[in-house]
């Protein structure tokens, strides 16, 4: 019975953390998708699915997810110095100014929320140092709630994709239902990505997303913008 | 001028050149073997002394040949002491299809030190129609100051992968490049003038923590270098330096205008 209770609590806390209702402002970011739609590179559900798939297989989201996993482990091992190190690492890796601001703004909002939800987390949150990236705060919260690391990564990746699909519904001629179909079709990819990322040693963390980096950098000069990245 | 230098084959350091009377020194590294094969390793360490100004480049494109399995490795360590201004502006790397190359570049900035660096990579001998259908390339760049990373860039390309053609990756282009300046805060408004210099190529310009970054993706390493040279020339005076003077080893084609 005890196990079931624990699992239910962890599951419910994961659902809360990955919910689009989490007040961190994720809805205001497109991570370069807005650039792509304006240059006609993202006009169909298939193109959206392919972009998300490439990001999951080769993109910078893998580095974020890797940090979620490392922060999760560091928290459980009570290794507070590691928290700051991975937070600084992620800030240095997220090179586009808008993407970095996104990660910091969402991180700041989540830290504020976590301070209210779990006051006991405060020493660990402070140890991350400012500005705290969203993935770092997320990893801490997940570990604190005893959500297993694999599930934490799955949830992180799925909520990331959900957010971008929601953005795409506003940008692309794409219906809500098509968006949900895309999300469902990516299920196996989330699992593969989470699995692979957890198995990577530090020296094997790389991206191959030149197009994604350019799309996010070019977003800074888009003439009209709905999104902040 | 270089106070101490030590090289062993296949690397050699050319006699330093002083393009003007500012005291700024230009040094070119010669790779006498012309290229690398699997199993080769190159180590380069440069220390820029306190308040020194120096540019380091290479005399020719860096080639990495097809490998039967072993990886060619290059490790570069740059240490800039307080107030130094160092430039690392090598010529392009050409990775033959089937080549396997791992490179790492680590820059350590002392207080008030500023670093400008660029890198241009061509995947496959695209001039003769070769694509990077096999092989592997890995590049890890890190710039640190006072125990914190300012910029970490970790790129990888597997020959023949979907990355070659996807819009998310290379979109069919064989050349990528980046120029970064770290240790100096730029006015964001200035980034626009750098974008304008690129003349419509597929590029991006953004601010880094205490620096800026320009990226290029396209068909021509010449075009990349021309834009990077213009960026370098536009920003150099504001970094407290004399006007940029392209090293002679780049040849006449490197002149921007």
From TrEMBL, chain B:
Subunit comment: UreD, UreF and UreG form a complex that acts as a GTP-hydrolysis-dependent molecular chaperone, activating the urease apoprotein by helping to assemble the nickel containing metallocenter of UreC. The UreE protein probably delivers the nickel.
Protein localization: Cytoplasm
Keyword Cytoplasm: yes
Protein's job: Required for maturation of urease via the functional incorporation of the urease nickel metallocenter.
Principal location listed in the UniProt entry: cytoplasm
Record's protein name: Urease accessory protein UreD
GO cellular component: cytoplasm
Classification lineage: Bacteria, Bacillati, Cyanobacteriota, Cyanophyceae, Nodosilineales
GO molecular function, one term: nickel cation binding
InterPro entries from the UniProt entry: UreD
Pfam families: UreD
